[in-house]
Amino acid sequence: MPFHAQQHRAPVGADALLQQARRALQTGALPAEELLPPALAYVSRSWQRSVQAGLDAFARSTPAPHHSRFELARATERQHELLTHARPVMDYLMGQTREHRGMVILADADGLLLHALGDLHFLQRAERVALAPGASWHEAHRGTNAIGTALAEAAPVMVHGAEHFLECNGFLSCAAAPVRAPDGQVLGVLDFSGERRPASPHLLGMVSTAAHMIENRLFQARHGHQLRLHLHPLPEGLGTAAEGVLAISEQGLIAGANAAALQLLGLQAAGLRQLHLQHLFQTDLEQLLRSAHAAQPLVLQRAAPGQPTRLHARAWLARPARRQSTAATPTQPGTSTQPSARPSALPAPLQALDTGDAHWRGLLEQAAKVCNHPIALLLQGESGTGKEVLARAIHQASGRAAQPLVAVNCAALPENLIEAELFGYAPGAFTGARREGAPGLIRQAHGGTLLLDEIGDMPLALQARLLRVLQERQVTPLGSGQSVAVDFALICASHRDLKAEVAAGRLRADLYWRINGLSLHLPPLRQRSDWHALAQRLLQQHAREQGRCACPTLSDELERALRHYPWPGNLRQLDSVLRTAAVLAADSPHIDWQHLPGDLRQELQRPPAPHAPSGPQPNAPPASAPPTAEPPGQPEQPQPHAAGTMPLAQHTLLTLQRAVADAGGNISQAARNLGISRNTLYRHLKRQR
């Protein structure tokens, strides 16, 4: 899709002329199209819409709506799929744009800001104009701005300085691109906003590429199990963000298409599913399957007249060892190398998490047995071990999958608001309450699943109220004397040793036994035997996100070193490291030492400190001390502190302090490098000291 022009835009010195143009437009002296150059036609159209919305360009503030925490929580839950696939890409984009000292924002299709991250100084300034989660940046509320205008124009746009309709937003320079679902529907907008300075010619392209990465993740999530056909008029276009991608069902029907494929083939999203492969190309399903198994490129001829008539293509199967078509040769027993090839009774959402580790497989089987029974599940394990991922898979595997899963982070909610957020409140229950009241997160989970994450951080005073709700299955909103019946499956999660919390008096014993119908202890990454399968799955995912036809592989020596690394951030850290390495190895089929983030590369060249678990592992076997991993050609380093000669807490503190020092004292950067949250890092530093 073409970008709106960002060249020939007015320089910063022309702000006064732009202000005069806005004033002339608002007074009706001249139409917008006569005020701005053709390259800014989209700004002209947006200014006109802003005037029609009744906005005053020179007002000090606007009555734009700002959603409450409760409304924002509901919106983020509705957009869970989009957020899940956007967050890693937002982290990546933030790293690519760090020199611009701004923020990366995700908004929904109505312009509601869902999630943001960025430079602390700029975040504070942005909050003054309500550029923060919970605010609406629809054009009707904020006038011309990259988020709202990208939605209105359904195209990537850049809005610089005084091109914003509201003068109070003139300090911003923003680039935004729509994010579309596999069916072509606009789901939201990805935006980068920063201080106004000379516009970077690459910024809009970077944001648009990141938006395509999110679309690729969404496409893979919905159609990753199906045969996919990657298309481009030029062979060198395959594996780039400009390639079209079709998903094809077992019957040869088109199951999905990305925006590039729709444009390339001249198709509309509506009615796409009625099309058969042979309506589009002079080929059949068997030829594509053979090409996928052989990893051979194709040249396809269009079945009907059209331009281009010939397209270069690659067929891709997520599991090449298994044939999709009933007419294809069946797979011989025992020939598949997939970890899940053995017969399995696991529901599909749980089966998708099985990568071959026997202990992990046992946890999945236990979860499958209880997911449709009224048994409270307690997931325990270190930060980053996949507790929320497992909880969502359990919900999807249950009979409640069609109803919402409401996730509540008990550690993130302010203590003075958590009661109202959980239990809801009646109209006028307290100062600042919404006139119509609020149902609360527990009632939102009615019919579905309630996930109480970090349950060990819930204030003690609130635990008694929660216990009563769990016992009686009724909730009484604040300020109301009337109880409301609720029905939900309960999953709780914590990185803490909850038995120790009970012993310390920080967690009620009766609440602990109520939430502990079945306790599943998720193993840390260093104790899992399926490291290779996990790494390969993540690399394949990142290759698809980056539009690569071939998945890069780890060199043997690097893989051995990474296997022995203690991974304090567990799967979250592994995912972050491999994403970065895959980007740095974009021009290479192999990932080697030079592609690792610098801090990890240095860490692997040092004597490893024993890892202090950040969560309980009562049933886990002790991890053996890993050997020191050295990159090729490096002499063996002396080990001044061999395992066992220094207290474990001191080793842990040294590791954390070293990470903070490597990040120049930046706690947020150190936490990102470790693959853990900033709160987790603060907590460990506080405990060890």
From TrEMBL:
SUPFAM superfamilies: GAF domain-like (SSF55781), Homeodomain-like (SSF46689), P-loop containing nucleoside triphosphate hydrolases (SSF52540). SMART domains: AAA. GO terms for molecular function: ATP binding; sequence-specific DNA binding. The keyword Manganese does not apply. Pfam families: AAA_lid_14, GAF, HTH_8, Sigma54_activat. Residues 363-583 form the Sigma-54 factor interaction domain. Residues 319-349, 602-644 are annotated as: Disordered. One of its GO terms (biological process) is regulation of DNA-templated transcription. Residues 324-349 have a biased composition (Low complexity). Keywords: ATP-binding, DNA-binding, Nucleotide-binding, Transcription, Transcription regulation. Residues 607-638 have a biased composition (Pro residues). It comes from the Bacteria. This is Sigma-54-dependent Fis family transcriptional regulator. It comes from Vandammella animalimorsus.
